[in-house]
Amino acid sequence: MKILTCPAQLQRLEGILRKSLPFALPVFGAVLNINRGNPGRFEVLVDKWPEFGAVLARPSGEVPANDGYWNTQAAFYRDLGAYRALLETPGCLRWDAAFTLIGGLGTPGSWGDPGEGLGSTGNVEDRGELLEAGRNWEDLAGRKGVELDIVEYYSYWHPDPSTMPEPRPAPGVRLGSLSPSHVDLLNDTWPYGGNARSRRYLAEILGRFPQVCLQDGSGQPVAWVLTDHFGTGTHSYTLPEQRRRGHMQVALTVAAQRAQARGFPTFGHTALGNRPMQQLQEMLGHQRLPGVCSYILHNPGLDKDGP
């Protein structure tokens, strides 16, 4: 196991992962952030260098044992055996803490399922490897006495945001910015929020990563899109009384165009039952990746507010 700290190595990794898009998402987004000032204080581990078979992006330093929001990690592998070996290496994962693992291609939170997914090399022949990886992960967690809580999403990415229609805010609405004073609003409207840990997490990503906000004439937010450590569009929301006015279309378009200008990909995860958001993204030219992406919370019983 090796933590990459050399700027030249991190730049090389960025180039390698870029060639594996969209399946290297979201690890690629984490590496982009690391190479551009590392606002999220992340690090990347590989099984070996330079001929790595697996890579993990995770928070650096100490992370609270009870915070599965902040302790979110993402993996991408080119070799299943290397992937297993990396994650079982002492010091790679903290098995006695709450943490969330999201996946790129071929990981337990993989882009794909046995019926329609692609394998770790992007070949259809590798479908069975995805299923094997999931079974192996559940077996490993079981041996360690770790419970899992899994939430599945459809994942969308836009191959070329420059082709998106020009955003036109509705009358009386303008582009603005969210501020720290809006954290409670974000926490109250986030389906996964409503607690002290989620509030702390939202405050952190609001202060460290780009966001898009539409405001009414009085300066109050009506719709917004946040971005996280992996460059993922997250907590996209329109106030109920402001819906059906095209606000989210504008917010998503502006967020995508700004991400492209910074050299970042445009992607995000949408709940399986959120058909309106799925239809909107497809209308804007986003492509849905095969299968589903899973957010796997480990030790959910530890993921709770504390002192």
UniProtKB/TrEMBL annotation:
<dbReference type="InterPro" id="IPR015938">
    <property type="entry name" value="Glycine_N-acyltransferase_N"/>
</dbReference>
<feature type="domain" description="Glycine N-acyltransferase N-terminal">
    <location>
        <begin position="138"/>
        <end position="210"/>
    </location>
</feature>
<protein>
    <recommendedName>
        <fullName>Glycine N-acyltransferase-like protein</fullName>
        <ecNumber>2.3.1.-</ecNumber>
    </recommendedName>
</protein>
<dbReference type="GO" id="GO:0005739">
    <property type="term" value="C:mitochondrion"/>
</dbReference>
<dbReference type="InterPro" id="IPR010313">
    <property type="entry name" value="Glycine_N-acyltransferase"/>
</dbReference>
<dbReference type="InterPro" id="IPR013652">
    <property type="entry name" value="Glycine_N-acyltransferase_C"/>
</dbReference>
<dbReference type="InterPro" id="IPR016181">
    <property type="entry name" value="Acyl_CoA_acyltransferase"/>
</dbReference>
<feature type="domain" description="Glycine N-acyltransferase N-terminal">
    <location>
        <begin position="1"/>
        <end position="102"/>
    </location>
</feature>
<dbReference type="Pfam" id="PF06021">
    <property type="entry name" value="Gly_acyl_tr_N"/>
</dbReference>
<dbReference type="GO" id="GO:0047961">
    <property type="term" value="F:glycine N-acyltransferase activity"/>
</dbReference>
<keyword id="KW-0012">Acyltransferase</keyword>
<comment type="similarity">
    <text>Belongs to the glycine N-acyltransferase family.</text>
</comment>
<dbReference type="Pfam" id="PF08444">
    <property type="entry name" value="Gly_acyl_tr_C"/>
</dbReference>
<keyword id="KW-0808">Transferase</keyword>
<feature type="domain" description="Glycine N-acyltransferase C-terminal">
    <location>
        <begin position="213"/>
        <end position="290"/>
    </location>
</feature>
